[in-house]
Specification:
The chain is of the alpha/beta class and 453 residues long. It has 16 helices and 17 strands. The strands form 2 sheets. Strands 7, 8, 9, 10, 11, 12, 13, 14, 15, 16 and 17 form an 11-stranded mixed beta sheet that branches. Strands 3-2-1-4-5-6 form a 6-stranded parallel beta sheet, with helices on both faces. Strand 11 and strand 12 form a beta hairpin. Helix 15 crosses helix 16. It is elongated and about 75 Å long.
């Protein structure tokens, strides 16, 4: 019923070496894989013109061969064995869009060992096994491209490597998870609590049945580790990212932030400091008049501060079949242009200095220096001075103090915005506040990111 993927393809040595079709093998034909096939077929003439040669999907590995045949038809060979695609002698580049970090690692490493370029949208794979994969690719002289793994339709990897190549990057900050941004938008716009907003996201297909990677901030941390590597020339440091999701975020804090002139977004922040790099994923207050505050729904946005270009911002879809396919095919076009060019130079694996002895350290949580929002429940409105006095004793600089607007069933709340202060100092101050008799409940804290030039 299906063509044998090993015997059905014309041997590469029988085709012209220059300008021949770039032959692609793909592992996975789900949401991203099917979108990639559709766009490749629909826009084949434009893609070939931009790549300098045709790009053709010739073999696909899929769990469900019948479903796969319904997508790609008879023109593409099918196999149930991903390793057959990874090692196929007549495939130039392997596209891995199956996901996961175990078997996917083996397929990608096998493809590299057989001299094939790799394109992937699998951020978890690269965050966990990237160091091994990029080292293997560099040794083999092949490219590993992964634009679709970072911000879906936003070409942020290309912007950092090429558009901002002349710059020293100072910081990168972004909304890089569409699911959490959708949830936070619903909490603000419709006054929903977290559970109701999550249920709506799941009903509309924005969140998985198990949304843990999204709502706990892990997906954003995967992506942030890749952004930081490209921005600062540092090794992948996913394990060192400070990660806080949105599961504990209360609708009350969304409303209080709005009262103070801010909106809450789950931000990934990579910032260069004198003694290291901050790597943080956290729900944070952003000024309501800032462009980042107006990124709604499942959209993504990334802002970069660099020394020559200044502030630049990149905006686009944070999810979607063809949106991710756009990035995957852009990587294929880059690979198609590699004839006669060193792959490691033309499409750098990361642009990192793997053997550098002066690699930037990741700052511990206590050393991160930012402004903060505090919501302090008190027993009486008159106790606002007790809160400010305690913060002064703990050497926390206060920039603004207000009382939260009255809400049914909610006691008085003191709202505080601090000037920049080390996280360790703020933690001690919160501990001291919790011990005060005037404080009537748990103190809520969030970072404040002004995202200024």
């Amino acid at each position: 019923m299906y063509r044998d993927p090993v015997e059905s393809l014309e041997p590469l040595h029988s085709r012209p070496a220059l300008n021949r079709t770039l032959r692609v093998g793909m592992i996975g034909i789900g949401t991203v894989g099917s979108g990639t096939f559709r766009v490749l077929v629909r826009n084949q003439a434009d893609i070939a013109a931009r790549a300098g040669r045709a790009i053709e999907l010739v073999v696909v590995a899929a769990r469900n061969l019948g479903r796969a045949a319904g997508i790609v038809g008879e023109r593409v060979a099918l196999t149930a064995d991903p390793m057959q695609v990874a090692t196929h002698p007549d495939v130039d580049v392997v596209v891995e869009v199956a996901g996961g970090t175990g078997p996917a690692r083996d397929w990608v490493l096998a493809a590299i060992a057989h001299g094939k370029h790799v394109v992937t949208a699998n951020k978890a794979l690269l965050a966990v096994h990237g160091a091994e994969i990029f080292a293997a690719a560099r040794k083999q002289g092949v490219a590993v491209a992964y634009e679709g793994a970072v911000a879906v339709s936003i070409p942020i990897v290309k912007a950092l490597r090429e558009g901002l190549a002349a710059n020293r990057i100072e910081w990168v900050a972004g909304i890089i998870n569409g699911t959490t941004n959708f949830i936070l938008s619903k909490m603000r716009d419709e006054g929903l609590d977290f559970a109701a907003a999550l249920a709506q996201a799941q009903a509309l297909g924005y969140a998985e049945a198990d949304p843990s990677f999204d709502i706990e901030g892990i997906d954003a941390a995967h992506k942030l580790s890749l952004l930081a590597a490209n921005a600062f020339g540092m090794p992948l440091r996913f394990a060192d990212v400070q990660v806080e999701g949105i599961t504990a975020l209360q609708g009350l804090d969304v409303a209080c932030a709005e009262q103070l002139g801010y909106r809450i977004k789950l931000l990934g922040v990579a910032r260069r400091q004198a003694d290291g790099v901050e790597l943080r994923v956290q729900p944070s207050l952003v000024p309501a008049d800032h462009l980042m505050a107006h990124v709604k729904g499942s959209m993504n946005a990334v802002m970069v501060k660099s020394d020559a270009a200044g502030l630049t911002m990149y905006y686009g879809a944070g999810a979607g079949s063809e949106q991710t396919a756009s990035a995957v095919i852009a990587d294929l076009v880059d690979v198609a242009r590699l004839d006669g060019v060193n792959a490691a130079q033309h499409v750098p694996h990361l642009g990192v200095h793997e053997h550098a002895t002066n690699a930037l350290a990741v700052l511990p949580r206590a050393a991160v220096h930012t402004s903060h929002y505090l919501r302090v429940p008190v027993r009486a409105v008159s106790q606002i001075q007790a809160v400010t006095a305690c913060l002064a004793e703990q050497k926390v600089p206060v920039r603004q103090v207000a009382l939260a607007a009255e809400r049914p069933g909610v006691g008085p709340q003191v709202l505080v915005l601090t000037a920049p202060v080390e996280q360790g100092t703020l933690d001690l101050a919160v501990h001291a506040l919790q011990a005060r008799s005037e404080v009537a409940g748990a103190v809520a804290t969030l970072c404040v990111e002004l995202l200024e030039g």
